[in-house]
Amino acid sequence: MITAVIVDDERVARKMLRTLLQEHPEVQIVGEAQSVSQAAEVVASTHPDVVFLDIQMPGGTGFELLSRLQPGCQVVFVTAYHEFAVKAFDVRALDFLLKPVDPVRLTQTIERLTDVLDRSPQTPQSRNLEP
Length: 131
Prior knowledge:
Elements: E1 2-7, H1 11-21, E2 27-33, H2 36-46, E3 50-53, E4 56-57, E5 60-61, E6 74-79, H3 85-90, E7 95-98, H4 103-119, H5 124-129
């Protein structure tokens, strides 16, 4: 099971992504947030495998959350602004999805995520045992 957090300041965008992710039973959404500060709390309490992260939000950008993620947590940027793509890959994001999210493209992202997590030496169970 892949655990995920959705971070977007727009409720409708979170709902649309949640609906698309329901087509992927291997993904379990363990939290949602509408701001960087709220996302930091949700991520700290849920320890997700992946964060689907908007970039432009009131009070901060998605890039500001990156330093608060635990090692091994993957990031998929989900935004309407294609001009952030290069910076997203500069910070080693797993993927970059443009809104509105194309279901076929999301499937490719989930496949990529599965491959990366399968190669990771750290399992979610072992991560939860760390102090």
